[in-house]
Amino acid sequence: MTRSTPRSTPSRVLAVALLGLAATACAPTVATRGNMTDPDAVASIRTGSTTRDQVASLLGTPTSVGTFDQNVWYYIGQKTEKTAFFKPEVLERRVVVVQFNDAGVVSDLKTLD
Fold first, then answer.
1. Dihedral sign computed on CA atoms, order 108, 38, 95, 58
2. How far apart are CA 30 and CA 36, in angstroms?
């Protein structure tokens, strides 16, 4: 009959824990930052008829509003993937620029990828 020593059990637990930690460190982490707008929601916005309130309802609060022109809303978002200690890789980046006229109706809509 073999008897294990008390030192072998903690050593095995430590080895398994380190192996698990090493395996999870190599798994990529995907992060979404900002406002990644839904392309279908953006497609439903019509110049000349969609209002400021409707845009806010469809896309949410803008990431930024124009500094010199409050009638320009920016929706900025990006999705990145990072593996371990390497620099994150940009998977997707999207900027939607919505411009309103003085009546609060969309006058221009641009999507930049």
1. positive
2. 14
3-13 pLDDT, tens digit per residue, is 655 556 777 77
10 Å Cβ neighbour count for 55? 24
Compute the average pLDDT of residues 77-85: 89
Q: With beta carbons less than 8 A apart as the criterion, state whether 72 and 13 touch.
A: no
The strand pair at 72-82 and 29-34 is best described as antiparallel
pTM of the model: 0.72
State the Cα–Cα distance between residues 82 and 30, nearest whole angstrom.
7
Question: How many residues are recorded in the chain?
Answer: 113
What is the CA angle 79-81-83, rounded to 5?
Answer: 165
Identify the three-state secondary structure at position 86.
Answer: coil
More confident residue, 107 or 84: 107
